[in-house]
Amino acid sequence: MPSPYLSDSHRNFALQVRQILQSQLLPIADAAEERGHLCENAWQTLAEHGLLGLPQRGEGFLESAVFLEELGALGYAGIRASVGVHAYMASAYLELFGSEEQIQRYLPGIRQGRIITALAISEEHAGSDLSQMQCRALPSANGFIVEGSKRYIANGSRASLIVTLVRSGEGQHALGSSSLLLIDGDSPGLVRTPHPMLGWCSADVCDLDFTHLVVPACNVLGKSGKGLLYLMQGLDFERLVAGLLALGGAHHSIRVLDGFVRRHQLQGRTLSDKQSVRHRLADLVGEQQILRHYAYQVAWQHSKGQLDTRSACILKLRATELALSAAQACAQLHGAQGYQLNSEVARVYRDAMAGTIAAGASELMRDMIFDSTPAS
Q1: Residues 6+ apart with CB under 8 A from 78
Q2: Which residue, 229, 193, 245, is CA-closest to 85?
Q3: What is d(CA 54, CA 110) in angstroms, rounded to the nearest whole number?
Q4: Contact by Cβ (8 Å): 321, 345
Q5: pLDDT digits (tens, 9 = 90+) for 6-64
Q6: Contact 27, 13 (CB under 8 A)
Q7: By CB count within 10 A, which of 101, 301, 307, 373 is most buried?
Q8: Residue-wise over 172-194: b if at least 16 C-beta within 10 A, else e?
């Protein structure tokens, strides 16, 4: 459906991206699920088509929004999470707060798919509540020594650059004395442990453990102790990205469901002949179209430098919950076919659950929406 925020060039770009993803990534997607991560050729393919270096800010971000929606619509949330973290969520901190030397050292390799990035924020007891963060960076003669662990890290086994949130001071509040560090993947003292999840199988989710890991002072992002300030900006962008990806995921489930109910026969009639089925699908389509307009409005706000926490949280909440509702309807109406372990429908349903948890659980999003809404 046309959007007032998108031009004909954006719509043509969407068609090009769709063709690239379906011809280049879709044939290797199942292998990535089995392997647990994207292969090197997949990263190179994305890079060769310029899809790892799309703008993160300014007017050009609308191209990124188109790409993220199409990536979500591919139907493999593990792949979309892996690419989304690499090309947007982790690298955004480098682009926003990195020094000129850090940007020149890392960003070309990131855009070329040679340097894979990860974002290490969550811990065993510090997910939605980061005040419980325990991973520490102790000052040393030439920088910091990192001790601790990070959990549920996408691209964890393959990342050669890990943007890591740590406690770097003695303040009582963890985030008030936190910093962001650029940790090289070949650093001594880093142990990676695969952490298989119910879904997102190709997202390469791992636990990371740091033992006396030395980080030079030149690898501090921005200023030491300013992690909370940087995180507040980064997380809003992360939720925007997650919302756009989930919007595409919802579209994929709706498309699969629509095709199935129109052709599946029950007692001599198609499922779509049943009013309850038509109405359920119509509700999903209606919500998806309304949400798509809102998503591109929020993307446009970001392109103007006006992204706010409330809008980002609303989009992330509604898009991930719509993706889950669409996947659940898809599984329910497929019957036993949708409950088979290795079926596409079962994979989509497992994947959709993760979207309502990662990048801020739905319950946290609701709290933040309420807290950021002015009292009437």
Answers
A1: 32, 33, 199, 200, 201, 202, 203, 351
A2: 245
A3: 12
A4: no
A5: 999 999 999 999 999 999 999 999 999 999 999 999 999 999 999 999 999 999 999 99
A6: no
A7: 307
A8: eebbebbbbbbbbbeeeebebee
Cα–Cα distance for residue pair 154/72, rounded to 1 Å: 16
Distance separating alpha carbons of residues 164 and 215, to the nearest angstrom:
11
**Measured distance between the N- and C-terminal CA atoms of the chain, rounded to whole angstroms:** 34
Residue 286 main-chain phi, psi, to 5 deg:
-60, -45
Read off the pLDDT of residues 233-266 as tens digits, 9 standing for 90 and up: 999 999 999 999 999 999 999 999 999 999 999 8
Contact 25, 79 (CB under 8 A): yes
| Structure-derived torsion over alpha carbons of residues 61, 67, 68, 73, reported in degrees to the nearest 10 | 160
Sign of CA dihedral 257, 259, 260, 265: positive
